[in-house]
Queue: 4 jobs
Job 1
Amino acid sequence: MSVTKRSCLRCGTCCRKGGPGLHGEDAGLIEQGVFSSKDIVCFRKGELAYNQAKGRLEPLSCELLKLQGKKGTWECLFYDPGSKGCRIYAGRPLECRTLMCWDTRPLEKIMTDDDRLQRRDLVPQNSGLAALMADHEAHCALERVARLVGTNQDVMEERDRRAKIIDICLYDLHFREAFREKTGVADAALYCYFGRPLFRAVRGYDPWFESEDFLRYFVK
Ligand code: SF4
């Protein structure tokens, strides 16, 4: 006899698959101190993400803030495997409150780009940090790398194209290092302010980004 699921069985599957994307109303949870910038990762515009509806990887049309995963995994950092529970249950974000794995229609309704929480919602627009974030984006936009990946060999030699991409990814790392040294901001918060390191974020654009030939510039 098959049983139709109508309530959460606390199996933990959704929390182990990844933390929720954040929406406008989740900003209130940050103000209340439920979580902070060091718990958030930004997937920047242009980063490849899996589109559930289309079943394929696509560049993000706008940035996406999510709760971070635990080291080396996608499992939400607030998931407690021992109790199979959420450590911030009373203050869990909108997507977690909306998700019913037996009926995803309510979740699909709120998954619009218009309601996404953005970095500009977290950082005062006239602040030094906002200026640095804009500067970083101007130099290290995913779209810059994507354009170079798609550049025809008739326009630019393969060797020059790859050298330019490595330059941009190294700039990103040096930028983060300088920011960390000057401000003392926790490493984890850099993922919120500047996204994932560019050399990681470009994975998926070209098999070369997973090769030893590319990674040796960034992983010591
Ligand atoms: S915030 Fe809580 S409910 Fe949401 S994915 Fe993380 S552990 Fe699960």
Job 2
Amino acid sequence: MIATDFRREFRSAQPGQRIRGRIPLGTSASGSELGIPWILLKGARPGPCLWINGQVHGDEINGLLAGFDFINGIDPARLHGAVVMTTTANPFAMEARRKKTPTDEEDLDQACPGRADGFMTQRLAAALFPIVAEHADVTVCMHAVGTPYEAVPYAVYKLHPASGVEERTLLRLTAHFRPAISCRMSVAAGGTELPGNIAGALDYQLLALGRTAFMLEIGTGGRAEAPHIAQTAAGLRSLAAEMGLLADEAPLPRPARLLRGTKRGHVTVAHGGFARMGARPGHVAHAGTPLLRIENAWGELVETITQPSDVFVISLRRDPVVQSGDRGAYVAWEWDEMTLD
Ligand SMILES: [Zn+2]
């Protein structure tokens, strides 16, 4: 059976129950029911609610699988509070194996809080966002880097001036996941992030309502990377323990230090051709180190991408085929080491 009224189920589920449901989104032309699938674990005792959003971008899979492993490893009879997972917040993008909604080419993570009578991406946001905002104490928004790129798991958080959620709190929460770096992401327009309405992100709009939320970038899209999935599932368990959801379990020991990225952006390529990596994602590349080398269609070296100062390499292009303007590398230009005690 598939439940369709999340609010009612959250209120009336029996302690220790696991419920599967769908947030309704209407119907397809062929008559299928459309919706966002969710899992609710209602604890045996009261407590906070941890919400995992498995993906907003349809081709990002590792975090979703980590959510499954975490949830399937919990005994609801021992749970205090609730764990909820929305498997995919954009089922249309997922079934098309792509980032954005096929029917309107919009990015769900730029569409919150949404519009119930709008285009499909706006409807997705309007269906999901209020339900998360009403119930979740902490929301983990799962992502991965795009399928042409390679990265090791890292975290991203935003600061909302009115949220009351402090940077230190967000950094400590991301530390459960052992990220290579935790990046503070600006929502200002015209910066070095991807173009678009970054303030429409699920985590930022939750922060605007005083809810705690952050993002994890778990490896590469379009893949199931077992070590990254295991690391993330362990992080979810540690976070749940810290929140008091697993009352007889302690969180993982907190790492003493965490890298914090404070200025980052994309490095694009000037020449088309075939790119080969010269550096490693998740590590510092020193000034002048080749990040990528590009040979053209005639086998001639036409571009060596370097940076004038040391950078932390967040992700690098894995798919070698490039043309002018493609994203080659994603780097932090400024970072520091935070003490978490
Ligand atoms: Zn994403």
Job 3
Amino acid sequence: MAFDFDTPTNRLKTDSIRWDSFDSKEVLPLWVADMDFKSPPCVIEALSDRVNQGIYGYTHSPHQMNAMIADYLYEQYQWKVDPEWIVILPSVVSGLYTTVQQLTESDESVLIPNPIYHHLRLACTSANRPFQEMPLELKDGRWVLPVNELSNLITNKTVLALFCNPQNPGSTVFTREELKEFGNFCLENNLWICSDEIHAGLVLDSNKKHIPLASISKDISEKTITLMSLNKTFNFPGIGLAWAVAENPVLRKAIQVGLHQTIAPPSLLAYTATMAAIKEGEPWRKELIAYLRSNRDLIYSKINSIDGLSIGNMEGSYLAWINCTKLNHPDPYQLFLDAGLATSPGSQFGQQKFIRLNFGTQKARLTQALNIIESCAKF
Ligand SMILES: Cc1ncc(COP(=O)(O)O)c(C=O)c1O
């Protein structure tokens, strides 16, 4: 391997949310979704050069930025996007909140998956919009949407569906057929769609690929805001930059409400990091995927050997969604925390009896975490 993912990094006392939120050095924190790996050397070098310039004035998005993103989307996903459809945002989360706020009236409601990354739900509650949950079901080891049951959830006030692919926390990489079925369901019910695809660069299965929902058909594209970012893949979420793709000018206008006013633009370093990752990050990303895949395989073999725990296929990202229902413990999150392992509680995503384990870390740390889980499961 040309890049080092194995040497432990020390993130204590860096104000890291993941590492510095627990008082005790005894807690291994595998929760919030960032990784314990340094960003690719190309990103670090580009940032160093920019920092060494010493002047950090107001900076607009580089003129070539949208075209670079459009080329990247074509290279990675064979998705043809006009650079004009792209709106640069500071973060995916701000895009989620703006979308819900702008695409729904106060008496209109939103469909969201369950389980789901909590900000999709919070975007609805903070805008005071009712939402209905689309429960994912485990089918052949994959968390999928039972699309033929979704019409029961729709009322004439349902106007927007939020979607997440690859799925967080379930880690499903949806197939073309599944996307087509869901997209067409939204078209038939005249729903806007907001598709959070922040984990797109982290598909682990070599026989799977990320397919943007909006790339399925022009009709779906006209109804969809796609939110993407390289923050997750190249591990610089603390610098942060995202983009929305919206073919429909109505949606493009909606996603820009508040931008440069109540919503600050990305910092100048975010443009630098993102462009460096686009230009030169691919060899690093490929090795990252291989490393995460071997971490994932470690999790499969350990978790499947523990009575009371189970896990679905982990097709994308570095988040393991572990089912602890059969442990018969009232609070699995607390059980593991008391033993020195911080995971994300399943309740954050809508499922109390699950935990989410971040395996974007060195193998030695992951092994330590799995040993803690194993010893607790025998309580
Ligand atoms: C599905 C999903 N969307 C959005 C985010 C956060 O994105 P950002 O940091 O760009 O706001 C995360 C972070 O974990 C995520 O998992």
Job 4
Amino acid sequence: MEFRFTAEQEAFREEVRAFLKQELPEGWATLPGALAEDDYAFGQEFLRRLAPKRWIAPAWPEEFGGLGLGLWEQVIFNEEMAYQRAPLLNFAATGYLGPTIMMYGTDEQKAQHLPGITSNDVQWCQGYSESEAGSDLASLQMSAVEDGDEFVINGQKIWTSQANYADWMFMLARTDPDAPKHKGISYFLVDMKTPGITVRPLVNMAGQAGFNEIFLEDVRVPRSGLVGELNRGWYIATTTLDFERSSSSVYGQYRRSLEGLTAYAKETRWNGGSLLDEPKLRAKLADLWIELSILRYLSYRVVSMQAQKQVPNYEASIIKVFNSEYSQRLANAGLHILGLHGQLKGDSPHARLAGEFGRTYLTSVGATIAAGTSEILRSIIATRGLGLPRG
Ligand SMILES: Cc1cc2nc3c(=O)[nH]c(=O)nc-3n(C[C@H](O)[C@H](O)[C@H](O)COP(=O)(O)OP(=O)(O)OC[C@H]3O[C@@H](n4cnc5c(N)ncnc54)[C@H](O)[C@@H]3O)c2cc1C
């Protein structure tokens, strides 16, 4: 079966392409800068140019700063942005907090928070994990105690991506310590400028300060920061996770990487021919191209569910496992093909492909951990998808 987009959708794709060509520096996608996810200032500046076009979240309703485009247009947009390696910041807000607020937030919360996301004025981070609550998230210990019309929050979060830039955090805290663990959690929206919040960046092995520890000491959050019902936050949190796991933005990014790698193998002389003539290497690249198509169509399956107003669940876990493990296979193949040169950073004159694969080899390790480890997601697929008994 071959899927085709409509003529209008293809025209939209061309419009996005033309905009990116005009707004990104010449040859941007092949420059080391495009891979430097920590180039926050450039990313912000670029997004400020997207905002007036209502392209921060084009599929959101117009009243919240989107264009009300269909989900397939959003997919096209994501594919083009990722293919051109356009900066993608605040994805926790556009990708999963925003849709969660639209489902569970009050009218006041929608009016207060959604426009700031689509104007790119307010950056968000996701405060779920704690040092003893990652896979077993429901055992989290951050406490929120009601005090009049406020909650007083105490505890520590960890691995919070982009918290060092965030203005607000959506987070989980325990509001009933005596209830069964899934039933005593609430979902909060917290202003990061509130007194009592300390953010400490953590540097990963690729040298990026991508995630953080956050300490909360007697942080007072007004009742207006509570999303949904008290003690029912777990169910909201899992909806956010389903949105997170079904993200459809990676296909274009991997396609660009694989094209670069294939072109490199074709151009590199080896044994009187090119690297691409090596049967094993050729078969490896062919596998990666086939898997890339699988990844794309798995994402399209989830989008078609969302287009029918269904919230994907184990289907999102399938995508997350496949995406994240694919990113590791791709990075691994890249480093093998590029050899020792592949380990050099993009600013070295001897680096290959702007140092991309040395970098993704390190950063992709976290891909099978973030947003749920592969083991946890396989359990979800086994129990909810295949109906197997819990082990
Ligand atoms: C790049 C990155 C970005 C992140 N960003 C954020 C963020 O923005 N916000 C946030 O809240 N968190 C974030 N995290 C944290 C992430 O959600 C947790 O790391 C993840 O949920 C795993 O938790 P853990 O690290 O405590 O590992 P653990 O839960 O301690 O797991 C350790 C190992 O045991 C395995 N394991 C645990 N329980 C089971 C089980 N029941 N069955 C089988 N195997 C099991 C796991 O699969 C894993 O291999 C990020 C993590 C990474 C790597």
